[in-house]
Amino acid sequence: MKVWYLARPLRSIRACDRIFGVRLRFEATDVTSQTIDRQQVIEVHRREEGAMASDTRRDIFRTLDRLHAAQRAGDVDGMLSAYSTKGQFMDIGRLRSYFDDLVARNVFRERTVDASTCETFVYRDSALVRPIVYHTPNGPRCFSFHLLKEGDGEWRIIDNRRSQLLSESAYEPRMVANAGRVIGSRGMVWIRRLDAPIDEVWRTVSTKEGLDRWWITRSVEIDLRPGGLFKHHWTDTIRDFEVNSFIEFESQPTGGTGRPNLSRIDLYADGECTVYSFIDGFQSHPLPLSMPWTASGWHCGIDTLESTLTGRNIETDFGLGGEFYWRYLRRYHALARRLSEVSGSVLDDEEWRGAYLTQSLPA
Fold it and tell me: With helix as H, strand as E and coil as C, how does 256-314 read?
C-alpha cells in the first residue's frame, strides 16, 4: 500500500541547506544553542510525514470501510452517507436507485473487497484511491474513488469509476492516437479529423438540434451570440464565434481559483473533411487528481461526435478512459519536470511560438 503526497516539505529543507550553505539551528529549552545535524532534521520530517500519511490514509479508508460495511448489510442509507452531495456529477437520487437494484440482486453479498494493491494519492483536501478490486463470481472488477475532505473533517466520495489493475495495459492504440495534448501546464487540446463537410459539422456543434445528438448532456440550450449562454452540465457564456470557424466559451470561476475557465471549438476544412479541435484551459479546475476523468469525458464526447457524423460505432469507456489519462498525464508531467531540470531554465516560449505565427512574406 502506497500513500503519495503531491507536496514535499523536505525539498524546502534541502533547498535552504543548498542555498545558504549552513546547518539548521534550533534553540534548546535551556536557552543554549544546539546544532542539529541536517540529516537528523530530514529524518524527523520523514517520520512526521509518514505519520501524517498514515493518519490521512486511515481517515480516507474509514469512509471506504463504512461504504463496504453498509453494502454487505444492504443498508442503502449507510452507503449514501459515504458520498458527498457536492460532487459536480453526483445525483444522489440516481445513486440510491442504483444501490437499491444491486441490493435486490444480492450483488454485494457475493463479492469480496481487496485493497491490498491500491495506491492513495492526496492533494490538499482531495484524494484518489485506485484500484480497489472487487472479486465477484464473474471475475475481478476494479474501481477508483475520488474523495473530498469536507468542512466537518470527514472524507466523502465525490466520484467512483471503473479502473484497472496496475499490471493491466491502459494504452489502447486508438486512445493513444486520439489523446488530448497538454498545452501550458494544465490546458489540453484534442484534434480530430472528421469524415464530414464543414457545414454539417458546424450545424452539429452550434445548434441545439445538433448538440442534443452527441453532447455529454443530452438536452442543452444554446443562444449563439456574443454574451449568449450555453447550458449543459454547467453554464458557459459565449465570448465570440464565427460561422464555420470557431466558438469560444467562458465559464465562471469554481473551486476557489478565482479564474474563469476558457474553452474553444475550432473547425478547419480539409478537402471534403473537417479538422475539429477542442481546447479546455482547465484554469478553474480545483481538483487535479480528478482532471484525468474530465479529460476522458471530453475524449468520449468527441468519439460520440465522430460516431454521430459518420455512423461508425466508436466507444470509449469513460472510467477506463480516465485510467488512461491518469497514467498519460503522470508520465507527461514527469517528463516535463525532467526536461525543466535538465535545461536549467525556461525556454523563451513566446519567441519560439512566434516562429509559427508569423505572416507569410509577400511574393
Answer: CCCCCEEEEEEEEEECCEEEEEEEECCCCCCCHHHHHHHHHHHHHHHHHHHHHHHCCCC
Same domain, 337 and 255: yes
335 domain-assigned: yes
Say whether 16 sits in a helix, a strand or coil: helix
Report residue 208: phi and psi, to 5°.
Answer: -60, -45
| CA gap 2, 291 in Å, rounded | 21
Which alpha helices (H) appear in the chain, and where do they start and end? 10-20, 38-73, 76-80, 92-104, 173-178, 198-206, 208-211, 291-310, 318-343, 349-357
Same domain for 215 and 98: no
* Residue 356 falls inside a structural domain: no
Grid coordinates in use for 36? 542539529
- Domain housing 235: 173-341
Q: Which residues pair with 261 in a beta bridge?
A: 251
Q: Do residue 39 and residue 75 come from a single domain?
A: yes
pTM: 0.77
pLDDT in tens, the chain (363 residues): 555 544 443 343 343 333 333 333 333 334 344 445 656 555 554 555 555 578 889 999 999 999 999 999 999 999 999 999 876 556 788 889 999 999 999 999 889 999 988 899 998 899 999 999 999 988 899 999 999 999 999 999 998 888 988 888 888 888 999 999 998 778 999 999 999 999 999 999 999 999 999 998 878 999 999 999 999 888 899 999 999 999 999 987 555 556 788 999 999 999 999 999 999 988 767 778 888 999 999 999 999 999 999 998 887 888 889 999 999 998 888 888 888 777 665 555 666 667 666 665 564
> Are residues 206 and 151 part of one domain?
no
- Spatial separation of the C-alpha atoms in residues 309 and 197, rounded to whole Å: 10
Beta pairing partners, 231: 221, 235
Structural domain contains residue 237: yes
**Domain of residue 180, CATH code:** 3.30.530.20
- Residue finishing a domain among 162, 185, 216: 162
In terms of domains, do 255 and 297 share one?
yes
